[in-house]
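User: Last request for today: this protein with alpha-D-psicofuranose, please.
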Amino acid sequence: MTRQVRQALRAQRIETPSWAYGNSGTRFKVFAQQGVPRSPWEKLEDSAQVHRFTGVAPSVALHIPWDRVDDYAALAGHAQALGVRVGAINSNVFQDDDFMLGSVTHPSATVRAKAVAHLLECVDIMDATGSDTLKLWFSDGLNYPGQDDLRARQDRLAEALRTVYDRLGERQRFLLEYKLFEPAFYATDVPDWGTAYAHCVELGAKAQVVVDTGHHAPGTNIEFIVAFLLRQGKLGGFDFNSRFYADDDLMVGAADPFQLFRIMSEVASGGGLDGGVAFMLDQCHNIEPKIPGQIRSVMNVQEATAKALLIDRDALRKAQVEGDVLGANAVVMDAYNTDVRPLLAELRQEMGLDPDPMAAYARSGYAEKIRAERVGGAQAGWGA
Ligand code: PSV
Ligand code: MN
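Assistant: Here's the final one, the structure of the complex with alpha-D-psicofuranose:
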């Protein structure tokens, strides 16, 4: 591994989401696990373990109101004391009864105002915690043709986004997330990257698109979207996870490691590892233990990144220019088929870490400790 590859891998940061540490499930059942955090404070403590063993996950995304506390500066201080920091603030305008027919696109001005007030509160929380990123995802959409006016909803969306955009500070930005469907099934107000991109372009440099890997139709060429957005300076970050069927939120790199590699290849060649692109996990661990699930996910992103960095770009360009189809493909596949685990283990040792984060965590006794200590209280989960 060359010095540049090592350097890039050392510098990459992967953000974990607070909600990954709480209980989660499907609409059929949420299985409670022992030792799950009872508060945002404890979620931060768990996130610090992921950073402790991987060395590359120093920030944790919050979700408001799931992580609502009285004193956000104190929460940020707690994070700092644990060696981590508050990352993106995720807004939530999808769980209040008033938002049944939409939030920022709702036909009622009163409901829209309530939604915008929540988004502005999230910017206040960014100010209090030092977060520089607001993540906006809207569940807004329609279940039936004729239910509302598609174009009017775009106008309402644009107006709300403008209000939030104008409230952002100098060093703050928002990332607009798109999602093909769910919970709305007939039409979604931000269903694809094109819609998100168009709104962000209209707004300016502080608005960028976030690509949640689980939010596409089967067979979508996500790396093309990544390449396009990067070229336009509009790729703000990723919500990484894996899908088999829909928005499954399984561990990144688990369902389709080759897709993750192809995505990271575009990120690497498009300058996306030079800062500016946030590598965030957006996952739930329904049946597996949560902290190891996050550690494994961080490692999966690192492995895909390492393989992407190993692509011999000169050889690839040469083959492409010469029209050597099989040669070019072989260069890419050689990198993908390289076992980068020994290289990453070596790198971790250089960083003063255990070469095997999963085993090191298992040995640490932290899982036993939280199981013994976190007894009583209400476990965190969706809505908590
Ligand atoms: C929506 O499916 C989403 O991907 C958004 O990022 C939310 O904030 C997150 O999941 C958690 O529900
Ligand atoms: Mn997401």
